[in-house]
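Field reference: sequence -> structure
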Amino acid sequence: MPAAYLAILNATSPLFGALIARLWLGEALDARRVVGLVAGLVGVAALVGLGPVAVDAQSLVACAACLVAAASYGAAGNYTRQLAHPVPPTSMATGSQLAAAVMLLPLLPLEARHAAPGPSVVVALAILAVACTAIAYRLYFRLIDDMGATRALTVTFLIPLFAIGWGWLVLDETPTPRMAIGAALVLVATAAIVAGPKPAAGAATLR
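Structure field:
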């Protein structure tokens, strides 16, 4: 699947999060939030663009895998929301990363290494691990605690927007009018979803 399609499918996470919150936790899904979710998806599509993809068994399987991953984000966000008050966000972030490391460690010997990493690679990896993962996950779990899963998952709308912004600042890439329209839709969608009363925690009890 092209990266543009993957970005759009990834941006369905808030849609799944809202649907699961409605069915599982009984959270309201009013017209404003529905319009915001749809506008965000359209905005992401406008930002990343679309390319021709042949509809065959391979592309359908890839699409299904991406949608399952997005639905998993939605389910995990709502599950985390139920644990937010007894478990602090820092503990959630730490436990999540330690569990991921333990699960991936047995696969490390299977990864082919072509050369020893240089200093620049080590620094980039450290920044990715600390700033973009450890600190980011701590903030993400705090957002789930403060705002609910659906609102926290709207970060997937913003990823293509930041990618275009960094491309403009660092790589001298030129934004297009379509990108500007997409960015505006994403910002409006995020504002529409985030606005409103904070959802009550503990709407459902885990068994």
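Note: The two ends are 38 Å apart (CA to CA).
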